[in-house]
Design brief:
Helices cover about 45% and strands about 10% of the residues. α1 packs parallel to α12, α4 runs parallel beside α5 and α5 packs parallel to α7. The strands form 2 sheets. It has a 6-stranded parallel sheet with strand order 4-5-6-7-8-9. The chain has a 3-stranded parallel sheet with strand order 1-2-3. This is Amidohydrolase.
């Protein structure tokens, strides 16, 4: 498939639903040195990846931004994440500059359990951060680490959503899984968490979390694709709940780090059993637009 075919396929899906485009809450833009290391890690099938994982959209930054715009993505993220101390503040400085030069990118920030975390998180919020990224698997940290107490409080009070990779896929981590998130939400019940990858493979458990916490959402990133289904299939018995929580599910792609085409990721969602156009409209655009652009684009009309 050519890039033109890919872009045409994406536009065909959202146009047929009567949408003005899509919002993708799970895309990655990073400093080049970091992105190169991430791609090298995927190329080597590192232990946190666990399998062959080709990068479909390996291109320079401007080309990757241009491709999203050709798809009709009206809002996207630059999900950065640290894997060690003294990295998050630098990533935040890069991300705020990227957002300023890329108006369709939601200003993104991150954090790590370290003594100055609350200071740079407070600065990021002051600088206009619209979304945070937390990666429990890569960061190998306990989300309830005392060093993050003030961080979570600041984010909860600011009502800034957090895309959080806390499920145990593709490879379990020491602190992944639903229980640390349940404990976190007991302490900070108003956190606007967006559980990445539908919480795979603990799909049912994270739907339970969603059911009990009104501000918790899930993103579709890589879930329901053949690449994931062959190892971590979404349980058929949970499909009715998937439909029920249609207003709490947001489209995410993991672009550019996906081993298939963007249009295919969207198409596989349209083929889910029992899913209707209203659900698709909400997931591809309306839910995220309501969350991130409430005064401007909360609905498609």
């Amino acid at each position: 498939m050519t890039d033109e075919d890919d872009a045409a396929g994406v536009r065909r899906i959202w146009s047929a639903l009567g949408l003005p485009g899509i919002v993708d809450v799970h895309t990655h833009f990073m400093p080049k040195s970091v992105m190169d290391k991430v791609w090298n890690y995927f190329d080597s099938a590192g232990p946190l990846v666990g399998r062959h994982w080709p990068i479909t959209y390996r291109a320079d930054e401007s080309r990757r931004v241009e491709m999203l715009r050709r798809f009709g993505v009206r809002g996207f993220t630059a999900l950065v994440y640290p894997h060690k101390p003294q990295m998050a503040a630098w990533l935040n400085q890069w991300a705020v500059q990227f957002a300023r030069s890329t108006p369709d990118c939601l200003a993104t920030a991150t954090f790590y359990p370290e003594p100055d975390a609350a200071d740079y998180v407070e600065a990021a919020i002051r600088d206009g951060a619209r979304v945070f990224k937390a990666h429990i698997q890569v960061g190998r940290y306990q989300p309830n680490d005392p060093l993050l107490d003030r961080v979570w409080g600041l984010i909860e009070d600011a009502r800034v959503p957090v895309v959080i990779h806390c499920g145990s896929g593709p490879v379990p981590g020491e602190y992944t899984g639903p229980e640390p998130i349940r404990r976190l939400l007991r302490r900070y019940p108003r956190l606007r968490l967006i559980v990445a990858h539908m919480g795979m493979p603990e799909y049912a458990e994270f739907l339970d979390v969603c059911e009990r916490a009104a501000d918790v959402r899930l993103d579709t990133t890589m879930a329901f694709t053949p690449f994931v289904e062959e190892q971590m299939p979404f349980p058929t018995a949970q499909l009715p709940r998937l439909r029920h929580f249609g207003d709490r599910i947001l489209f995410g792609s993991d672009y550019p780090n996906i081993p298939y085409r963007y249009s295919d990721a969207m198409r596989w969602l349209t083929e889910l059993p029992g899913i209707d156009d209203d659900w698709l409209r909400a997931v591809f655009y309306e839910n995220a637009a309501t969350l991130f652009f409430p005064s401007k684009e909360g609905t498609r009309r």
